[in-house]
Design goal:
This protein is an alpha/beta fold. Helix content is 41%, strand content 18%. The two termini are 43 Å apart.
Length: 450
């Protein structure tokens, strides 16, 4: 997604057909839509909020340019009245949202949009698209960081993410979630993320001898040489690294580390560590990579694998074990009337809402409570903040590093049982009596009217 690109047509067709019908029926009343996730994917006990400011930038700059209007006209589907209306359409509403870098749980509104119904409806697709992907990846990445137990984790996913925009957003979301850097140079420039990289197997095999490849790279990067040692035989290559390290030490230089990308990663790391330690080279770091995610990192931690850091790619970049969230954007209030959806298994909670977070005396997260927007509970933190008013983003806008720090602090306060990589326990989320009463009244009204 390029900066400055007009994105108004990045929507589903039915948003536009509904919008024309709203206009023709003069339905211009204010409406509130709530975005939430209905259920946890397997082995998930929490979510990480991400993607908010892409949504807010989109809303603040929302408009249909001449090219968009001409394209819609060429489809011979929409009325001239509706196309003229779109020419002047801007987002004028308000948004309440969880800031980036906050933990949230199923059924909790991540954000709520209030605006004239056409405006609030037509932006649904973009909002879901951005929040779903970035929260999905931030959650996966946060799990990887937790599983690594203090070891650095970096993003190696760009080549296999599902498109350019996804590659950029994965780098940002994983850094937000605690990754130390990315191999994505463009993301490093755009988001100020540290960039990290080593070498490929093709570099090693382009030389007749493995040691010559090592020497060439170390000559080019004497202060940043991390050598890939699994192209042929990992143990033999580690012994060559020892020889090269001695050559470099004589010049006042040193090898920073090696990377192992295949084979029995636990066994090989232990054997390579023993080789380096026996040679008095305890400062050479070992990097693990090769199709890893949080399950592997947790197993490595349990096995005592002596890795100093990990490169995590494909499975994180596409959230391989849970590639989508059951995320929904539902109308909860229209023209001053609370509304809901009653489909089996997909009932939505009516009304404008707030989420309150309670901590214990040590600052640990105890439970969340979902209530009405106007509710107040002393000693509990309201999580939804007003971030947009009259179509304009409200300050302050936290930096990426600010949001990253917030998340690290919040995850540290989440019970370990909820953070468990496999079979986590459920974090308590309650609904206030007032919200339950509104649900009951609204359900009765809907059943009587239909």
């Amino acid at each position: 997604m390029s900066t400055g690109e007009n994105l108004a047509l990045l929507t589903d067709l039915y948003q536009l057909t509904m919008a024309q019908t709203y206009l023709q029926n003069r339905k211009t009343e204010r409406a509130t839509f709530s975005l939430f996730i209905r259920a946890y994917p397997r082995h998930r006990g929490y979510f990480v909020s991400a993607g908010l400011y892409d949504v807010l930038d989109f809303l603040e700059n929302f408009s249909f340019d001449t090219g968009a209007i001409d394209y819609l006209r060429s489809k011979r589907l929409f009325s001239d009245e509706f196309l003229d209306f779109l020419k002047g359409l801007r987002f004028t509403g308000e948004v309440w949202a969880m800031p980036e870098g906050r933990l949230f749980f199923k059924d909790e509104p991540i954000l709520e949009v209030t605006a004239p119904i056409i405006e609030a409806q037509i932006v649904e697709t973009f909002i879901i698209n951005q929040i779903n992907l970035q929260s999905l990846i931030a959650t996966k990445a946060a799990r990887c960081v937790y599983a690594a137990r203090g070891r650095m984790v970096v993003d190696f996913s760009l080549r296999r993410t599902q498109g350019i925009d996804a590659g950029m957003k994965v780098a940002r979301a994983s850094y937000l979630a605690g990754f130390s850097g990315t191999s994505n140079v463009r993301a490093g420039q755009r988001y100020g993320i540290p960039i990290v990289g080593t070498m490929a197997h093709s570099f090693i095999s382009s030389f007749a001898r493995e040691i010559d490849a090592f020497r060439a790279f170390a000559t080019s990067f004497p202060d940043n040489s991390v050598l890939l040692i699994d192209t042929y035989d990992t143990i033999t290559a580690a012994q060559k690294v020892v020889s090269l390290a001695r050559e470099m030490a004589a010049r006042g230089q040193r090898i920073q580390g090696i990377r192992i990308d295949s084979g029995d990663l636990v066994k090989l790391a232990k054997e390579v560590r023993n080789i380096f330690d026996a040679a008095g080279m305890k400062d050479i770091k070992i990097v693990g990579s090769g199709g890893l995610d949080e399950y592997d990192l947790a197993d490595f931690s349990d096995a005592g694998a002596p890795y100093d850091s990990y490169g995590v790619g494909t499975k994180m970049g596409v959230s391989g074990d849970a590639p989508w969230f059951d995320i929904a954007y539902k109308l909860v209030e229209h023209a001053g009337r609370s509304v809901l959806k009653l489909s089996p298994g997909k009932i939505s909670w009516p009304g404008e809402k707030q989420v309150f977070r309670q901590r214990d005396n040590q600052g640990q997260l105890r439970c969340d409570v979902i209530g009405l927007r106007e509710d107040h509970f002393p000693g509990m933190e309201p999580l939804l903040k007003k971030v947009m008013e009259h179509g304009k983003v409200l300050p302050p806008r936290p930096t990426l590093d600010d949001s990253r720090t917030t998340l690290m602090q919040e995850i540290a306060c989440l019970p370990d049982s909820v953070k468990a990589i496999r079979n986590p326990s459920s974090y308590p989320v309650e609904f206030t009596p007032g919200l339950r009463a509104l649900l009951e009244r609204t359900e009765q009204e809907v059943n009587q009217a239909r």
